[in-house]
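Help wanted!
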Amino acid sequence: MDSADTLPLAKVGGEPYTRFPVDLYIPPDALEVFLEAFEGPLDLLLYLIQRQNLDIRDIPIADITRQYMDYLALMQELRLELAAEYLVMAAWLAEIKSRLLLPRPPAAEAEETDPRAELVRRLQEYERFQQAARALDALPRMERDVFAACAEPAQRDVTRLPPPVQLADLLDALRGVLARAELFSSHYIRRETLSVRERMTQVLERLDALRFTLFTALFRPAEGRMGVVVTFMAVLELLREGLLELVQAEPFAPIHVRRRG
Amino acid sequence: MPELKIILEALLLAAGEPLTLERLLELFPDEQRPERTVLRAALTELAADYGGRGLELVEVASGFRLQVPAAFAPWVSRLWEERASRYSRALLETLALIAYRQPITRGEIEEVRGVSVSSGIMKTLQERGWIKVIGHREAPGRPALYATTREFLDYFNLGSLGELPPLAAPRDLDAMGAALAAPTAQFPASSPQTEFPDV
Amino acid sequence: MPELKIILEALLLAAGEPLTLERLLELFPDEQRPERTVLRAALTELAADYGGRGLELVEVASGFRLQVPAAFAPWVSRLWEERASRYSRALLETLALIAYRQPITRGEIEEVRGVSVSSGIMKTLQERGWIKVIGHREAPGRPALYATTREFLDYFNLGSLGELPPLAAPRDLDAMGAALAAPTAQFPASSPQTEFPDV
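Answered by r_m:
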């Protein structure tokens, strides 16, 4: 761009442009970057409007259209990839301009909307979101403004939670083991009721290896006849397995019981 | 057993990410588990302890987080100069539209911005975990509907979408229409909210 | 500008990894950079601030780091707990035998299963709180007698062992297994004789 003074920058409507638009104060080197910075035709139009402190709602269409075309010509000249949207906007601006120039019959004037209205609406809507984007950018953001505070634990163990088990799993396992046991006829599994086995555990838990407990204290009349029977069978089984020791000092004296070992 | 708020401090520091009240409660064995209100009170107390310190307790969308306050950015940002990413205006505008107008299609974003949205931007936003497709509009081509995520709120220190900075109100279009009908009418100068820095 | 030790706190918390004295110094702009001795003193001061808190400052091989003290492991380690997939068949068979044949020695379990029972299984079942040693058999080596616990009953929603599915002939068990697999299957109400208050 060193010969920018002499070579035309662009041709607009066949007219060569050798100067930058009057409102453009950007040094030529930065021009390309500057033009690339526009986020589309609405962005460029908003820029032109704000640059001149104009009210969006009362855009001098002729002026703005001329400036817009100047920039477009520059962008084309610099072979910036020009999105099709820019050309669509140019056509739209030209149309608005021509409609504003057409004389309107006084009667129709009241109902007819301003040809600029839709453009104004689009510009305002876009402007709102430009502001929103800036507000978003201004929020305290992780990794830029605020940072997660973390400290490694001195001791890091992974607790492994035990897996869940269903009762059906348990029964299934038992079925397997019993089926295997049946193959060996020597392993006869006796089938006491579970309540007796449970009572055996409970009796063992209650008894002390060092001190004797009164035999009758193992029974709870409140449990009823069946409860007493179950306890009695449990005690017999524990005696048979050599887990209990029964002691009677003399005939008819109270029987005592203690855990073996 | 240490004081409840101190255990919470340890948990939040070790986690390094937001933890919900429920998650915090889960971390206590059944017999130690505090009441929700007690836990909340302990968190409030903890937050107060950090006045003037290098960390603060905040509640974001995904729960409670301990973080280094923005006041320390001048020093901390030097830790990871490459990490502090700047986002383009195009990306921020797209994100703003999705945040304020969700659920929204790509076509609707393009309509407001007046320019097509690059696939790169949508991809970046999705990879960052800030937006996601939450459905499709029943229209030709069934375009995807985008919405922001919990991670988006967390990242921008927001508890909910309601905490987003308010969107400027659209100017009264009826009044404007009337004014436009009279070509000579003068509008007041644009309000300061439309003041922009140079591009 | 915040106090030096507070900036260091912020830096170490944001880093989440050890930082050397040199690295810490680098993070200050030239004109702010403290003397090494001043930095060390500030670190010492900072370390003292953490007495009774959920974090501590330690010097490790690769520098200074803030960490959550080991005392908080009981809570903190729950952050990363994971569920093991499932129990082995050997464990379930062992548990079933203890449940149905209690009190029982390890030797007796092995005799029925036809294979040895690993110590790991017995340990796991004890740690899970499902079995316990309730005595020893008067036999060479005084083998431990195992029984199930109240936790075992609670876990399987049983009021007593009597509510376990009855130990029927192996052939009947097939039918019973099928019934158990069907979610709507109802167990027959337990007979009154099996209902016991705690002994």
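OP: Thanks! One thing I noticed: The first strand of chain B starts at residue 56 and ends at 60.
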